[in-house]
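Methods — Computational structure assignment.
A single polypeptide chain was analysed. Its primary sequence is given first, followed by the predicted tertiary structure written as structure tokens.
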Amino acid sequence: MQIQKNLFLFLFLLFFLNSCSKAPDSKTILNSFPQLSYVSESQNIHLSIYLDDSESMRGFVTNPQSTYCLETGNFIQRVLETTISSYDIFTISSLRQQQFSSRTIRDPSLYNAISTPLDQTLHHIVNQVKNDSTTEHISIIVSDLVLSNDRDITNFTKQLKELSKISPEFLLIGFQSIFQGKYFSEYPIKGTLQVQNQTRPFYFLINTRTKKTLQLVKEKLLSTQNANVFEASAPVLMIDSI
């Protein structure tokens, strides 16, 4: 499947671009988010969330109780309620700031973009980090990580390499969610598929400049306390060390 192809490509690039020799630490079963913890106001942190609004994401919100709706909605709500000094939420297709709530992401009409320009998203993140070295930037992409064509893959690779030079810490969390609706296949044959009550993966891709900031995200926004307790909506994949 294309999503598997692109995810493996992405993971390979992360391993290749980061010079740390420590082996990756993969957690296969993690608990759902616990009660909200707050980030200190005294830290100069800016959080940017990039939400994939392509049509291939719409099938995740057909069922308002899907893992996508619950986990992404809960995460957005936590972001809105934290005391991080500032934050922005963008749609990937336009990179325009949007007003979001935990209900907004459940609206099927939000997901109407014809492509997923993740390379442009990474370019936007690179510019943010470069232009403001006094702020600790947290960048979070919520997407199925499916790239549209070979040009996107080439540009994605270039921007990922550039980002890894200036902001080298990455965290990738993968979920499986029920999906019902149109899926725009890119591989092996390009076309539209009608998917009925099957599961597809989506991901939280998190980037920070320092390990300290990444640890802050894991502890305050993505805490994995009681990780030995299985929850059906828990992440099925978490790469937290490269």
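Note: The first strand starts at residue 26 and ends at 27.
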